[in-house]
């Protein structure tokens, strides 16, 4: 068992009077008197909080977020650890972003949670933070906001749900939903089977148990060093998950006393290691957008070219759905992320710190793989290169991405005529119309689904294959869009085309019948239309009206950046000083 290393250097520890919360509680004056009086109003004794590190626990729990429905209990375990370590915990409810229920997409609200996180941590008397999240957008949002404040921080991942079951099948949420829905459309199963699947697909609290976006981003958080070791793969309902939460509460108090700020962890080297981890896991394409945004908040420049460069240096070693066979519980008991990273040490920066160890090297010492079919040897890799490729070409001058390990190999080099849908709603209405005369060679094109056009860049990128082709046995086609897709999805789907069509990117100029060429090995996405014709089309193009006339949506459409730069708000992404609040 790996031992946690706690430095003995008392000189590095902060004195009670140097705590940030001391400005609220420990000075002489009316304001401090008021703060202490109001804390008595809350029922706390002076001995419970004065002179102790105040720890904010930011909880994304809600009754309608199945990924986080257990986090109300986990917050209590974090508090237990904080109390045990001599700190003072305070729980704060923050926005819950549910990939399952929130429309048009929780991506529209990622930056809102990031703002809430930042301003809450800055404005209250807290010395450190524990962030509870896991459903797709909550991990990047919480860490983006926390990075902008730069307090000592620990992230507690929500953890994957239990594997699904249907008859003799083990199910992976998301991935098998798409599979069996297509089976139903193809006439292979009926309503009775679908009712059984509905009851067996998602059996417990926790996020998707495939290597979807949630598991990808929590693994990235662990690779960044902001979780305790092994935290990202513990099943949500396992008792080990509660112990991990308590351990995180213990650690945050120690980090405050050592003055270990988040910026000391979120370095350029840490982000490179997170990218390598995501690519070697065969992780979600959504991680590209989120890690670029997170790095920007940390003052680190991370680009699409960095993803493509690192992808060429790491193999895919995680045999996990949707690109492989197993689920997250299998990964956890195979050794989890510490064991996985131990097979990538030659590409990692091992001398950087984590929340639990002085170095990543120490954190990985002694980690062992217990199932080499789940976590592969390099000699038996699922793919020689990372699972996401970055494409360029006249259709995506600022880049696009494809999760090529989840596509049928024969489609990775393909040329076919485009069939264009201007909106997702139009596509839904017409995709099964025999008059379209679609064949497996056609390239399905969806536009106006990007950051502004979606709005919010919904997960529309896994466009459905027409019913009549499914009945012929066709299960994959080349599909391109400025949308995202779920990390649990699969297929030859080109995503995140930048700039998006809604702002006049080349995708706005494609017409049905235009030849489109995809060549993943050459990293190319090309529209075979002359430059002169493209210029004529551009001159005739008119921008669509803005989506929002007021409210948060108007702020979003005014400030949102494109996919290749992380879809952050421009006023949040830029560097600049923000003063500490005057306490008075």
Describe the structure concisely:
The protein has 584 residues and is of the alpha/beta class. It is 34% helix and 11% strand. It has helices at 22-25, 30-41, 46-49, 71-85, 110-123, 138-149, 175-185, 191-200, 213-224, 239-258, 268-280, 286-297, 304-311, 328-333, 336-342, 360-364, 424-430, 467-470, 531-540, 551-559, 570-573, and strands at residues 54-59, 88-93, 128-133, 153-157, 164-166, 169-171, 389-391, 400-402, 413-421, 443-446, 479-481, 493-495, 515-519, 524-527.
Describe the structure.
This protein has helices at residues 22-25, 30-41, 46-49, 71-85, 110-123, 138-149, 175-185, 191-200, 213-224, 239-258, 268-280, 286-297, 304-311, 328-333, 336-342, 360-364, 424-430, 467-470, 531-540, 551-559, 570-573; strands spanning 54-59, 88-93, 128-133, 153-157, 164-166, 169-171, 389-391, 400-402, 413-421, 443-446, 479-481, 493-495, 515-519, 524-527. By secondary structure, it is of the alpha/beta class. The chain folds into 3 domains: 9-51; 52-162 and 204-379, 3-Layer(aba) Sandwich (Rossmann fold), CATH 3.40.50; 389-540, IlvD/EDD C-terminal domain-like (Glucose Oxidase, domain 1). β1, α4 and β2 form a beta-alpha-beta unit. α9 packs antiparallel against α11 (268-280), α11 (268-280) packs antiparallel against α12 (286-297) and α11 (268-280) crosses α13. It starts with 21 loop residues before the first helix and ends in an 11-residue tail after the last helix. It comes from Streptomyces tsukubensis. InterPro entries: Dihydro-acid_dehy_C, DiOHA_6PGluconate_deHydtase_CS, ILV_EDD_C, ILV_EDD_N, IlvD/EDD_N, Sugar_Degrad_Dehydratases. Belongs to the IlvD/Edd family.
């Amino acid at each position: 068992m790996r031992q946690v290393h706690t430095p003995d250097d008392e000189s590095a520890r902060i004195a009670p009077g140097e705590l940030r919360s001391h400005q609220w509680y420990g000075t002489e004056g009316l304001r401090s008197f008021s703060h202490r009086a109001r804390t008595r109003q809350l029922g706390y004794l002076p001995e419970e909080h004065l002179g102790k590190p105040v720890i904010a626990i930011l909880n994304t729990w809600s009754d309608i977020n199945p990924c986080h429905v257990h986090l109300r209990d986990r917050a209590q375990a974090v508090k237990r650890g904080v109390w045990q370590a001599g700190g003072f915990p305070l729980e704060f409810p923050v926005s819950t972003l549910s990939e399952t229920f929130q429309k048009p997409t929780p991506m529209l609200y990622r930056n809102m949670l990031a703002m809430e996180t930042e301003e809450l941590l800055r404005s209250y008397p807290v010395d450190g933070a524990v962030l509870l999240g896991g459903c797709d957008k909550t991990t990047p949002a919480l860490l983006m906001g926390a990075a902008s404040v730069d307090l000592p921080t620990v992230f507690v991942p929500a953890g994957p749900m239990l594997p699904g079951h249907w008859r003799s099948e083990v199910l992976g949420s998301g991935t098998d939903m798409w599979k069996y829905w297509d089976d139903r459309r193809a006439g292979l199963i009926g309503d009775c089977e679908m009712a059984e699947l509905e009851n067996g697909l998602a059996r417990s609290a926790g996020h998707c148990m495939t290597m979807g976006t949630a598991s990808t981003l929590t693994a990235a958080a662990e690779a960044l060093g902001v979780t305790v070791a092994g935290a990202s793969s513990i099943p949500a309902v396992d008792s080990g998950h509660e112990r991990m939460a308590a351990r995180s509460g213990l650690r945050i108090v120690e980090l405050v006393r050592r003055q270990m700020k988040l910026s000391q962890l979120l370095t350029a080297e840490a982000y490179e290691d997170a990218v390598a981890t995501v690519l070697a896991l065969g992780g979600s394409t959504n991680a590209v957008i989120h890690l670029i945004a997170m790095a920007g908040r940390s003052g680190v420049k991370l680009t699409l070219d960095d993803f493509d460069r690192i992808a060429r240096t790491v193999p895919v070693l995680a045999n996990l759905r949707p690109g492989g066979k197993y689920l997250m519980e299998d990964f956890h008991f195979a050794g989890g992320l510490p064991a996985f990273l131990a097979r990538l040490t030659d590409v990692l920066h091992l001398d950087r710190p984590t929340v639990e160890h002085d170095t990543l090297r120490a954190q990985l010492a002694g980690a062992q793989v217990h199932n080499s079919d789940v976590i592969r040897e390099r000699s038996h890799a699922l793919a020689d290169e990372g699972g996401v490729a970055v494409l360029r070409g006249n259709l995506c001058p600022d880049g696009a991405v494809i999760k090529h390990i989840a596509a049928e190999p024969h489609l990775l080099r393909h040329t076919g005529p485009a069939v264009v849908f201007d909106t997702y709603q139009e596509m839904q209405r017409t995709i099964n119309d025999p008059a379209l005369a679609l064949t497996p060679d056609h390239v399905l094109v969806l536009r106006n689904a990007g950051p502004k056009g979606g709005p919010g860049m919904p997960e529309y990128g896994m466009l459905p294959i027409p019913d009549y082709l499914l009945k012929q046995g066709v299960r994959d086609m080349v599909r391109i869009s400025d949308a995202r897709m779920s990390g649990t999805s699969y297929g030859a789907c080109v995503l995140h085309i930048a700039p998006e069509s809604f702002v006049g990117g080349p995708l706005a100029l494609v017409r049905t019948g235009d030849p489109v060429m995809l060549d993943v090995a050459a990293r190319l996405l090309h529209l075979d239309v002359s430059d002169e014709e493209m210029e004529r089309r551009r001159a005739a193009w008119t921008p669509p009206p803005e989506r929002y006339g007021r409210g948060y949506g108007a702020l979003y459409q005014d400030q949102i950046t494109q996919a290749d730069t992380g879809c952050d708000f421009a006023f949040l992404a830029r560097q600049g000083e923000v003063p500490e609040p005057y306490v008075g």
